[in-house]
């Protein structure tokens, strides 16, 4: 039987960026935007707050863009501080690269296994899906989903008891499948 697990975000991730005021390395976002127009040009930023001192920093969404090139529904979402838009923009690798930041997903996701009826099986086939691009170690997902220690999953992996079409070392943020034989 094939089991479907899903990695779901529980909140917005922290933004890794150095604070110029207190030298903290983490910022949180509440989904607020700042939009500034200069005649026919427009700038937009996602505002983030330092977790150490509360200082505000800006992540550039776009700058010096012609107003006509910005979709009206995007402009409306920016003006209304749409938290869904903030989540979408934080998933955009171009925005992250442009602002030279990365995301810290620790404590911002959960694994939905759909129940624990798979724990009494001798072997299970699992398909893992990601609701957002959350980089997670597959060993951690398997351990959490099966109620095992990570060291036990590593031992099963090296013993050939965990089989997958993708490499299970490192981090993954895309869908994958595996078979586990206890």
Automatic annotation (TrEMBL):
<dbReference type="Pfam" id="PF06353">
    <property type="entry name" value="DUF1062"/>
</dbReference>
<dbReference type="InterPro" id="IPR009412">
    <property type="entry name" value="DUF1062"/>
</dbReference>
<protein>
    <submittedName>
        <fullName>DUF1062 domain-containing protein</fullName>
    </submittedName>
</protein>
